[in-house]
């Protein structure tokens, strides 16, 4: 497989991992006194896609041929904080849980196709 085929297979695996997944809804409440959680609730909202956040795939070592290809083709960028190369998950609006599912599927497929690389699914809440 060439690098484009590997990337595409990982992308398909990530999307398949999200298919049929329903995130845990997030409930947001506005209290009468924002400094007192025991005060009366004035408004409530349900966010069906769950918490807002980000997810990405981190791949190491960042100087291998696949990572260089990812950067050269704008699929990845050097990660100055974690090291290696990061592939950002930009689909699924702000749903952190869906982004995490995609990243998990991507990583699992990448480890299957390129077991010599270290790949991690990472996320943070917004």
Estimate the helix proportion, in percent.
25-40%
Rg from alpha-carbon coordinates? 18 Å
Largest sheet: 4 strands, antiparallel
Distance between the termini: 36 Å
User: What series of H and E elements makes up the topology?
Assistant: HEEEHEEHE
Low-confidence stretches: none
Rounded mean pLDDT score: 96
Within the largest sheet, what's the order of strands?
Answer: 4-5-3-6
Write down the overall geometry. Answer: elongated
What fraction strand? 25-35%
Tally of contiguous helical segments: 3
Tally of strands: 6
Structural class computed from helices and strand pairing:
alpha+beta
Q: Could you say how many structural domains there are in total?
A: 1
Give your account of this protein's structure.
A hairpin with a 6-residue loop joins strand 4 and strand 5. The protein has helices at residues 3-18, 65-72, 96-113; strands at 26-31, 41-47, 53-60, 77-78, 85-88, 118-125. It has 126 residues and is of the alpha+beta class. The chain has one domain (3-21, 51-125). It starts with a helix and ends with a strand. It contains three helices and six strands; from the N terminus they run αβββαββαβ. The relative contact order is 0.24.
């Amino acid at each position: 497989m060439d690098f484009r085929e590997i990337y595409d297979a990982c992308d398909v695996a990530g999307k398949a991992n999200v298919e049929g997944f329903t995130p845990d809804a997030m409930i947001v409440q506005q209290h009468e006194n924002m400094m007192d959680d025991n005060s009366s609730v004035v408004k409530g909202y349900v966010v069906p896609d769950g918490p807002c956040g980000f997810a990405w795939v981190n791949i190491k070592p960042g100087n291998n041929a696949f990572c260089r290809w990812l950067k050269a083709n704008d699929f990845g960028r050097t990660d100055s904080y974690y090291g290696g190369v990061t592939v950002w998950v930009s689909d699924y609006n702000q749903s952190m849980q869906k982004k995490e599912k995609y990243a998990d599927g991507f990583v699992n497929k990448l480890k299957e196709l390129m077991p010599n690389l270290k790949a991690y699914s990472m996320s943070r809440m917004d």
